């Protein structure tokens, strides 16, 4: 199983030469360094610990520094993650995105969703709102009765799992079977069809798909190389610039298709 850590850069629209639109997410995958290798004989499971996002030494505490010094690392990293069920790697090896995935493969992406804080039941559970007319008798966005605690006919408590208002978002979520549209070796980016959890700069785990291991033919896209990622802070601006250029190219393709259709109709 191939796996890598990356940062979400943002989303944009891609087009093929037939005018079809593909929503895509760009993830910047700086080369991950293997810090520790666990084996089934010694540790009870096959796993690797990888480090991601190079930082200055002064930004880490003593415990974090000790992990890298113990493993004779010449650089310090901000994030450490463990991938279970992975073998075949050695300590000090770098994992690059172009070595892990190819266009046409399917991947599973795991990350934390956007946090929404304390949220009402209408937004959190998609409940129906109350009547909006005058004289409704109660605020319109109340969730209504939960059918508990009325005299002796029901239990005098709130049952476990009752859908009510509360903390919404900031949960670990895995999106499965996402198609890899493009892999940029020079910029260490991977372009995935569809959306992934979390806001911009969210740390993501990318692994080979568990359910779908067959590769498919990727459509021929107009723009395959997306936004050099020298610094994450500038990525959103570069995506917007590329997004404009892709939209302009797609308009040209669509206009050419319309001209062909008009020419066919005139010929008939």
What does this 3D model show about the protein?
The chain is of the alpha+beta class and 268 residues long. It has 2 domains: 3-115 and 171-267, Elongation Factor Tu (Ef-tu), domain 3 (Beta Barrel); 116-169, no CATH class. 21% of the residues lie in helices and 33% in strands. The chain contains 5 helices and 12 strands. The protein has helices at 40-43, 62-70, 97-100, 121-125, 235-267; strands spanning 3-15, 21-28, 32-38, 47-55, 76-84, 94-95, 106-112, 115-119, 166-169, 172-184, 189-193, 203-208. It has a 6-stranded antiparallel beta barrel. Strands 5-4-3-6 form a 4-stranded antiparallel β-sheet. The longest helix has 33 residues, at 235-267. The protein is flat.
Question: Keywords for this structure?
Answer:
single chain, alpha+beta, 268 residues, 2 domains, 5 helices, Elongation Factor Tu (Ef-tu), domain 3
CATH superfamily of the largest domain: Translation factors
Number of helices: 5
The helix-strand sequence is EEEHEHEEHEEHEEEEH
CATH topology of the largest domain: Elongation Factor Tu (Ef-tu), domain 3
Topology of helices and strands:
Elements: E1 3-15, E2 21-28, E3 32-38, H1 40-43, E4 47-55, H2 62-70, E5 76-84, E6 94-95, H3 97-100, E7 106-112, E8 115-119, H4 121-125, E9 166-169, E10 172-184, E11 189-193, E12 203-208, H5 235-267
Antiparallel strand pairs: 1-2, 1-12, 2-11, 3-4, 3-6, 4-5, 7-10, 7-12, 8-9, 10-11
């Amino acid at each position: 199983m191939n796996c890598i850590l990356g940062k979400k850069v943002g989303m944009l629209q891609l087009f093929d030469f037939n005018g079809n639109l593909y929503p895509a997410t760009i993830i910047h995958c700086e080369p991950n360094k293997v810090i520790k290798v666990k084996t089934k004989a010694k540790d009870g499971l096959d796993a690797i610990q990888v480090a991601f996002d190079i930082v200055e030494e002064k930004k880490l505490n003593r415990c974090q520094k000790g992990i890298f010094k113990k493993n004779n690392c010449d650089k310090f990293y901000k994030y450490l993650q463990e991938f279970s069920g992975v073998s075949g790697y050695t300590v000090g090896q770098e994992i690059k995105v172009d070595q892990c995935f190819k266009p046409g493969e399917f991947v599973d992406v795991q990350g934390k969703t956007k946090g929404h804080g304390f949220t009402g039941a209408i937004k959190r559970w998609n409940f129906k709102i109350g009547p909006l007319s005058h004289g409704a008798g109660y605020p319109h966005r109340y969730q209504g009765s939960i059918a508990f605690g009325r005299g002796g006919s029901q239990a005098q408590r709130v049952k476990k799992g009752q859908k009510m208002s509360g903390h919404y978002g900031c949960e670990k979520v895995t999106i499965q079977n996402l198609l890899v549209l493009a892999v940029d070796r020079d910029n260490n980016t991977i372009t995935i069809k569809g959306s992934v959890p979390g806001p911009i700069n969210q740390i993501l785990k990318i692994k080979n798909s568990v359910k779908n291991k067959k590769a498919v033919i990727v459509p021929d896209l107009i723009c395959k190389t997306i936004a050099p990622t020298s610094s994450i802070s500038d990525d959103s601006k570069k995506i917007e610039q590329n997004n404009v250029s892709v939209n302009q190219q797609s308009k040209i393709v669509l206009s050419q298709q319309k001209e062909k259709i008009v020419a066919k109709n005139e010929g008939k």
